[in-house]
């Protein structure tokens, strides 16, 4: 199994119930350091986790600017609402402070995507306007201290935009992963999967 394809450590698959259809998705593991929501959002938007700090800053700035709307959704590490926008900013500006529903809803307002969060293969929540491209996140563990990973639909293979790498993956008929990475010239938006 290719454990280093395009910088990913391991790609399991999961069937998601998408509007009543079982759709296979790759699970893209996200580093569990408290920034997992921001890292997952960074990945599904930019094909890299390295934009997480910028994504965090944009989201928390939006929350602070619209504090009256988001105050009730905000929560600290004890599950209590933040007292004010300044307290929220001070805590959420830290690189390892966990993001949750508040930050996901803010992301849905500022980015041109619909973010769908799945838990145990079922839709858990959505953020963003319908009609925008859909990006999917995986939520696991406990609701107050869970973890976000990213999903990529099986028919797509993410590429590193900075390297312009086209990742071609081959699958055996019995479902075992046999991957080969081939670097080819192409645009950032090229994606291809070839079935054996």
UniProtKB/TrEMBL annotation:
SUPFAM superfamilies linked: Cysteine proteinases
PROSITE patterns the record matches: OTU (PS50802)
Name by which UniProt lists this protein: Uncharacterized protein LOC115627605 isoform X1
Highest taxon listed in the record's lineage: Eukaryota
Gene Ontology MF term list: cysteine-type deubiquitinase activity
Natural source organism: Drosophila lebanonensis
Gene3D superfamilies: 3.90.70.80
BP GO terms, sorted: protein deubiquitination
Annotated gene: LOC115627605
Domain OTU: 25-154
């Amino acid at each position: 199994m290719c454990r280093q394809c395009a910088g990913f450590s391991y790609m399991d698959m999961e069937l998601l119930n998408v509007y009543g259809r079982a759709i296979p998705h790759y699970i893209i593991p996200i580093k569990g350091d408290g920034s997992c929501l921001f890292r997952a959002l960074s990945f599904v938007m930019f094909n890299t986790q390295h934009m997480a700090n910028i994504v965090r800053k944009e989201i928390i700035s939006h929350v602070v600017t619209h504090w009256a709307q988001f105050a009730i959704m905000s929560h600290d590490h004890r599950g209590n609402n933040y007292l004010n926008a300044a307290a929220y900013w001070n805590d959420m500006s830290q690189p390892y402070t966990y993001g949750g529903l508040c930050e996901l809803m803010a992301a849905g307002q500022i980015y041109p995507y619909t973010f769908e969060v799945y838990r145990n293969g079922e839709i858990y929540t959505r953020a963003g306007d319908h009609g925008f491209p859909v990006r999917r996140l995986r939520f696991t563990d406990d609701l107050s201290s869970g973890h976000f990973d990213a999903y990529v639909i099986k028919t797509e293979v993410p590429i590193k935009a900075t390297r312009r790498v086209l990742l071609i993956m081959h699958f055996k008929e019995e479902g075992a992963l046999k991957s080969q990475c081939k670097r080819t010239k192409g645009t950032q938006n090229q994606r291809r999967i070839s079935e054996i």
